[in-house]
Amino acid sequence: MKAISVHSSRGGTGKTLLSYNLAAIYASEGKAVSLLDFDFRAPSLSTLFRVEVKRWLNDYLDGDAGAEEVIVDISNRIDVEGRLLVGLANPEMEAMREMARKDRRWQVRALRRMMELKRRLEEMDVDVVVFDTSPGIHYSSVNAVVSSDISLLISTMDVVDLEGARRLIRDIYDAFERRVYIIVNKAIPYQLATREGREELVRRISRYFKYPLLAIIPCYCDLLLKGSRRRPFVLERRDHPFSKVMREIARRLEGL
Predict the structure, then answer these.
(1) How many CB atoms lie within 10 A of CB 131?
(2) Which of 51, 180, 191, 251 is the most buried (most CB within 10 A)?
(3) Which H or E run contains 208?
(4) Backbone angles phi, psi at 186, to 5 degrees
């Protein structure tokens, strides 16, 4: 089983959209995939799926629910060959406040619970786990990164995002010696229109990061305009350039 965390320095990079579509690609290829919402400060996957949830990942980390109680199978809902199992974070404001108040002792217990959840998912024959993490340095993000085999660090070309991502590498990825790959999202399309423009963009990115650049994804406005709540964009619009880029990312991750 391969565990992948998807992380960013701040919100607005498209991290959740990439997590969801990456998980959907693997599920469409016949794999069993678990997508876990570890963005406890601003959970949004529950809004995308709109499924009835009895227990949340919050409850699991608190020790008040078992893995089977918080994992929901939405495979039929999005019509995939494999399985897509989701674990959702509680989007209620009070739940977010409560998670923010957790102390260090609780965080240590939560890490143990995360590792137990990974073992349980492996027993359920899950092939890939995708953690959608909280932006920045937050205990849930650090736990997800530590629990992952590979981390994807998402940034735009905004200098605030780039500098923030560089700090995350210094403070988390270097400190824990984790495998991390960079994805630049929402790149301005004209910068990629020519070979020279793309090469210059790659040079700019390489000045910020010593880790490998996995992909550059242009900004596609129609991702929001023409997407469907019922199915992920990569399944709804398979021939769209975004879908092709995401399939290439999935293919490259399999070889890592």
Answers:
(1) 28
(2) 180
(3) none
(4) 60, 35
